[in-house]
Amino acid sequence: MSTITDLKQRGAKLDVWGVGTKLSTGQPDGALGVIYKLGVTRRAGGEWQYRIKLSEESAKTSMPGSLQVRRFHQPDGRFIADAIYETDHAVSDPCEIVAVETENKMTIPPSTRYSDLLVPIFRSGEVVYETPSIEASRERTRRQLSCAPPEILQLNDPAPYKIGLERSLYELRSKLISRAKELAE
Predict the structure, then answer these.
(1) Does the model's pTM come out above 0.85?
(2) How many domains does the chain divide into?
(3) Beta strands at 67-73 and 79-86: parallel, antiparallel or unpaired
């Protein structure tokens, strides 16, 4: 395994460095249940190469690609579900969402209104994001919470919010997992 120093000496073109749990928490507080893993690489002028990291825990196996999250809305603005998708693959319409853990499927009706949630922070090593004021962040949070299904906001026995992988990302991930397992045998 390479250290950050080794990678830098070899000329690695990385915009951000993070080191394990200390990346996602203010020590000594407990860790969040998240981790950042490499999902796609490309040599200068080359094709994108999808990457996957396997884990014995299905939820810890990484997602390949350059990802985005699409939130679908009912006509009244309430949230229906979120789908994680790979930006180089078109999102199907109707959109089929597959839950990673259960493989349950949900179909979002054609032409359902949506918004994409992730915004770029860096491009080519340069900051391209303008940080909103605390007041704007607070107001956006209030608007988002007012559109969340009430049953997911309950303090006692909240319902899980529907989220999963868009079908083509689910299939890509499944294919890469199978290929990686074949290579390991």
Answers:
(1) no
(2) 1
(3) antiparallel
